[in-house]
Amino acid sequence: xxxxxxxxxxxxxxxxxxxxxxxxxxxxxxxxxxxxxxxxxxxxxxxxxxxxxxxxxxxxxxxxxxxxxxxxxxxxxxxxxxxxxxxxxxxxxxx
Length: 95
Description:
By secondary structure, the chain is mainly alpha-helical. The chain has 2 helices and no strands. It has helices at residues 16-52, 65-92.
């Protein structure tokens, strides 16, 4: 059986200002995760509709199918960059 941790992983807050800062930090990070998740699911849905031919979202930008997929790829890279930026902010975890 595993031995429980000797010390807690998080230190308790001792004053109101520190608790408020930590609460704002947590809210900001979870909001970032929510935005990235929503954008990823939206991009996935648009990509699946684009692949099946239901929509041509990028038709005003690119005339050929290759150009449309290139525009989709750029949009995917933007979402990946946003996810990386959000993850980096969370992993630093300094309040």
